[in-house]
Each structure stands twice: as C-alpha cells, then as structure tokens.
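Hi there,

I know you've been waiting on this one. I reran it after we fixed the sequence typo, so this is the corrected version. Both the input and the resulting structure follow.
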Amino acid sequence: MCNELDYLTFLDDVKISKTRDFMKYKKVIITKFGGPEVMQLVEESSLPEPKSGEVRVKVLKTCANFTDIMIRKGKYPDVKDKPPFSLGYDMIGVVDKPGKDVSEFQVGDKVADMTVIGAYSEYICLPASKLTKLPDKIDDSEAVTLILSYMTAYQMLHRIANITEGKSILIHGAGGAVGIALLQLGKLLDLKVYGTASKSKHDLVKKHGGIPIDYRNEDFEKRIQELTDGGVDVVFDPIGGQNFKKSFQSLKPGGQLVAFGFYNAVMDKGGNILMDFMRIMLWNVLPNRKRASFYSIGGLRKKHPEWFKRDLQELFKLLEQGDIQPEISNHFTLEKAKEVHEKIEKAELKGKVIFDIS
C-alpha cells in the first residue's frame, strides 16, 4: 500500500500535469496561402492533448526549408490541408506526454520526425510510430538538418539512382541545403561532382569537393559537355521548367535524371508543376537510352516507411562519426519567421537555417 508521502507525491504529480496541460504556448500559423505576410505568431491557451498512440512533444528545433515556402504558397502537392495551420517540415523535440497505449517512449526521450506541417510550434502531438529516437551524443541543430535535406540527398543517391562509387553527377542548387548534403554524401562515394550555383557560393561548393558552374553566366549544358566525356551519369534537378530538358540533355547514354522539385514554378519563373511532372514521366518511357524519375520524400515514406527510419538512423550514425558536417548559416526564433522566409526566397542565406523553438 502507498504511504502518505507517496500519496502526496502522486497528488503533486497530478497537479503539475494538470497545470502543464493548461499552459499557454506559441506557434506560427498561415492564415491563408500566399506570401510571408500570411504568417502570424499566435498564442494558444492550453497545450494540445495526445490521442491514443500519440505523443506530445516539446519542440526544440525545426528548420526553415524551401519546402515550407512551397506549402505556404499552396503549391506543394503532398499537403492537402487548408489554412489556418502551422508550417514546419521537420523537428527535434523532447517527449512531454505519452498518450494512451504508448509504451516505447518516456517523458524526456529526445525524438525526431518529418512532420511536413506543424513544427513551427512550441508543442505538437505526433504518432509514436513515426518518431525516431536520437543518439545521445549528437547536436540537436545538426540532427534536425538531416531529416529533410540529408534524407532527400541520401535517398535520391541510394534509393532512386542506386549510384555506385566513381560515377559522375550534376547537382543543381549545389550551394543550397540539399545540394550541400549531396556534395558531402557524394564525396563518401568518391563521385565526380559538378554543381550549379551562384558565384557567391562557389567557395562553398569547392569546400565540399564539387566543381562549380556559374548558372547565371554559363550554359551548364555546354559546360558539362566540355568537362566530361559525353555527359554525367546522374543529374539531380529541383529547378523544373526548361531546366529539366537541359538536365536530361546533359546525361550520357544510360544516365538518369532525378527531379525533386519545381523551383521555377513556385517562384513564377516559368514551368508548371503538372506539366513538368508529365514531361518527366514521358521521357522515362521514350526509347532514348536515358531514364527520368521524380523523387518525393513524402511519397517514398508512405510507400516504404521502414526505409525512412532506417535511413535516418544511418544518417545519425554518419553524423556521429563525423562523416557529414551540416552547414548551418543562422539561428532564429519563431518571431523572425516572416523575415527568414523573405531571405530564403531571395536566396540570401547559405546553408541551413534553424528555428530555436524551446
């Protein structure tokens, strides 16, 4: 039987739990689809309550991703939710309250997840089945960069292109977050790597073993033909529009285009998401001795959820061993969310941008 002290301790725990449930917390929502002005910092009067099988997580870190901008503009095919909702594609956090029927996580466990939306918030409830525990010895800010950017790079290399050591690749946006991840992971495979980037980011591309191409002042298709013997083995292209066509022409026979974004269409610089996707699918069936495919991190996770957790654990291991080193440019609080999105759209930030939440 419980003694009086145990009973009083129990009552104190219940009181603390009840008090916490009615704590206020902040999050950034979008009120409608549009520009940075649709983002709004709001305060909720009580913490979200985890359902059966869920865990309430106190968010520590999330990234400001270009994908968040696509979602904010209403141009991300995998998000069907209508505003208002919070952005936030990835997060590192601490288990704050396990819901009913959750036994694999305890209060205080540090966890990671690709949330897609919702992580621009101090607290969030997530399915326990999707959470991955963090190793003890890795930095939270570095760890959160792996969930979207490095996962995208890793899966495109190993799950889509199935690339082998010594091959050649062209990376578009090589100075961006996914580009840097591809450079670092490509170096581990001893790949010959070329990367398009603005002149200001060429030193960054060189730092990670890439050969930079100035996309503003050079025709990358012609430059690749000059630098290679008939093209590269794989091109990774998040740009879309006419860029897809030039990327496809930069491949050697037997090469593969991996498309993974529609930057031009999102930024109103040409291209159409649906038409671009259909063009990719058409090229893949034509008898041209080349292949084309589209990578969707969300689509692949739905199809092979076990791959996502396995690949994330492998990336955590590479980080722990020092084999990859995320480039983090800045840390901001949620209050700066509008300003950060404006800077990302203007390509003013190098490397990954982290929101420090709690």
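Quick highlight: The chain has a mean pLDDT of 93.

Best,
R. S.
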